[in-house]
Amino acid sequence: MAEPGNEERAKEPRTVPTISDVARHAGVSPMTVSRVLSGGQHVSATMRRKVETSVRALGYRRNENARSLRPGHRSGLVGVVVTNLANPYYAEVLEGIGEILSEANRRVVFGTSHEDPEEEARLIADFVGRQTEGLIVVPAGGPSEHLRPEQRHGVPLVFASRRQDGVDVDAVIVDDVRGAERVTALLLEEGHRRIAFVGNAVSVFTGQRRYEGFERAHAAAGVPVLPELVRRGQQDIHSAETAARELLALDEPPTAIFGANNRNMVGAIKALHAASAARGTDLFARVRLASFDTFDLEELVPGDLSVVTHDARELGRTAAELLLVRLQGKRPDRPTRTIELPTSIRTRRRSEERLPGTEPAQEPAQAASP
Amino acid sequence: MAEPGNEERAKEPRTVPTISDVARHAGVSPMTVSRVLSGGQHVSATMRRKVETSVRALGYRRNENARSLRPGHRSGLVGVVVTNLANPYYAEVLEGIGEILSEANRRVVFGTSHEDPEEEARLIADFVGRQTEGLIVVPAGGPSEHLRPEQRHGVPLVFASRRQDGVDVDAVIVDDVRGAERVTALLLEEGHRRIAFVGNAVSVFTGQRRYEGFERAHAAAGVPVLPELVRRGQQDIHSAETAARELLALDEPPTAIFGANNRNMVGAIKALHAASAARGTDLFARVRLASFDTFDLEELVPGDLSVVTHDARELGRTAAELLLVRLQGKRPDRPTRTIELPTSIRTRRRSEERLPGTEPAQEPAQAASP
DNA sequence: TTGTACGCGTTATCAA
DNA sequence: TTGATAACGCGTACAA
Predict the structure, then answer these.
(1) In what ranges is there compositional bias, type Low complexity (chains A, B) (predicted)?
(2) What is the DSSP string of A140-208?
(3) pLDDT 10s digits, B100-132
(4) pTM value > 0.85
């Protein structure tokens, strides 16, 4: 069975080649190899060829970790923490981040906090120890000591999608308050007086802000928010569906439901569908829907639906760009900024179903505020 | 504006503290600090306390890169390449991978290949240079030199979801062929003779296999596959929608559509919906649907729908577990294995709409084959 | 143009 | 129990 000295597999490296291996193989000094590798200016063509041949022969690759040890060198690593990748929204954000960082020749070390601040703290500590040049975080909320500059050794931090009180860093967020306010106002204008709110935990930045918008619209219209119609704390489709089911079972059910993020809206829709089937009535005709964030197959919802949209990928891109500016390092004392992306509202009504073609316009998202 | 020597910010480190800084601060040797940090056995309580105090005072964190430089030490990094994070399917896979690796105290360096083998090669080269201990890749297909053992310096590689010819490594894939075959057979049994196929590019492993199953079912039933109903090459919802729209515009449109992955099915559904609205007829009543992979809001599809399902997160978990086995390093010459996860088929018919509650059973997925 | 010496932060080894 | 030394892979500074 044992077949020692299998010559046919000779190329399989038992050990990773180092710069010295290459140097030996090429009959030059390690320094010459290093020079060639960094596009060296002061190397003879002969040497260069010898080195290049050996590099290929050994399949040599520089050890980035060792490189980043040298003073002045950067690791090329950026740490990214999101709360929950099962939400396609954050997958989009991550794609946007990756797009920009990839162009900037940076790699992403990635972790999911699952909305747990402690997990978030562990990830950040680890990332800092790995010499990541910067961090992009969707903060879970809660304690924030681990986000303070001392804790992260001054590694630049950018918040995406959410911010955290008491941590003054660059951030890209969404105009949650106005988006929620406008779409709620729309429902109120249509005459709805029993609007349910299904959303994130109270501790979640966006959940808080979207609720604030929801409240503001009510206040402006002089309509009270009905506490029994407010369900906050659902982070996934399943719990959102349960919450919505309870709402629909009330003696006086809501006439409209605002889903404060896409998971909550999808859950609510599932509940509506199930309840419709169970009761043999079309509840979609009786419950007006509004969603913050888009989701697949919106158009299949057989009732009136408004969606507050923004470009999640663009949000990711912008966060990465903010980070890169900090990494360039000019004006390190530049005051932090928060970029708030605008939202737009798209409404599809059942009565318009016949309308063919003409896709909703894609809009670029950009806006700055101090 | 410039306010030099801001004492209130004194704690903000201008430079990252090293083990020597801690040693100096504690009045001990760096070696003692190192010992304390690694839960050192042979340290006096006094020393330990001194060191711990200094560590906290300076906010010291070990430099993982420098650590991994030492022989025998591992980087704790695993490189993961997926083709497209915009597909929630892969986000799920990534979550599963992260779950297991996180438990094993490994971090994920992440990249998207966007189905481009060259981008994949760049990512892998970079990951190897960063001393990742292992790689988990959803291969884009195409050339595979960059996946050969020499190119990756013998770094263990595991394929997820797809495999690549000529690269003999551990893999976790789905029983694509049988899943597609069974669901196609179901449609054929129902009497369908014009079944459309909308799927991935021919070069994509799963697309290829699912098409194979599609063909096999036809062959077994003695029904010819109609080339004009086969559209292969759509990777996103938009292109899938276009392909489906063309199919529906045929003089003799298909009576059933098989979407070979969730993006293709969602696109086809959008096309059906749009065409229904445009023509004022319910095409869902005339076109039977079948999908490989689930998607949100399946139940809203107003027609008969079969879904071939498997647990994407479990697939990710399993891939990570296979990698960890290789990283343990016992029996490095152990033959590679491919784990093929079984699928199950769930069918919802319009006529059953009344059926309340009783969620479809979640099934654990496990099966091994050589 | 090429090579030598040294140091980056860490820890295994050995000596005290 | 504690500390000095050396080495991991690489690249800057300087010498040849």
Answers:
(1) 359-370
(2) --S--GGGSTTTTTT--EEEEE---TT---EEEEE-HHHHHHHHHHHHHHTT---EEEEES-TTSHHHH
(3) 999 999 999 999 999 999 999 999 999 999 999
(4) yes
The nucleotide lying nearest A71 (C-alpha to C1') is C8
Residue nearest to nucleotide C2 (CA to C1'): A32
Give pLDDT tens digits for B143-198. Answer: 999 999 888 888 999 999 999 999 999 999 999 999 999 999 999 999 999 999 99
Nearest-by-CA chain B residue for A86 = B92
Instruction: Please say whether the beta carbons of B292 and B240 come within 8 A.
Output: no
Which residue of chain A comes nearest to B275, CA vs CA? A356
Chain A to chain B, count of Cβ pairs less than 8 Å apart?
188
Which residue among B128, B270, B356 sits closest to A299, beta carbon to beta carbon? B270
Q: Which residues contact B260 (CB under 8 A, 6 or more apart)?
A: B180, B197, B198, B199, B200, B206, B207, B210, B211, B214, B292
Are B153 and A61 a contacting pair at CB < 8 A? yes
Give the domains, in start order, of chain B with CATH numbers: 2-9+73-173+314-343 (3.40.50.2300), 176-309 (3.40.50.2300)
N-to-C CA span, chain B = 70
Q: What is the CA radius of gyration of chain B?
A: 27
Separation between Cα atoms, residue A201 and residue A190, nearest integer Å: 28
Say which residues have a Cβ less than 8 Å from residue A190's Cβ, sequence separation at least 6.
A288
**Both structure tokens of A82:** 């999101």
Is residue B323 a contact partner of residue B170, using CB atoms and an 8 Å limit?
yes
Q: pLDDT tens digits, residue range A81-122?
A: 999 999 999 999 999 999 999 999 999 999 999 999 999 999
Helix (H) or strand (E) holding B77, with range, is strand B77-82
Cβ-based neighbours of A231, under 8 Å, separated by 6 or more: A196, A197, A198, A199, A243, A244, A246, A247
B346 touches strand C (CB under 7 A): no
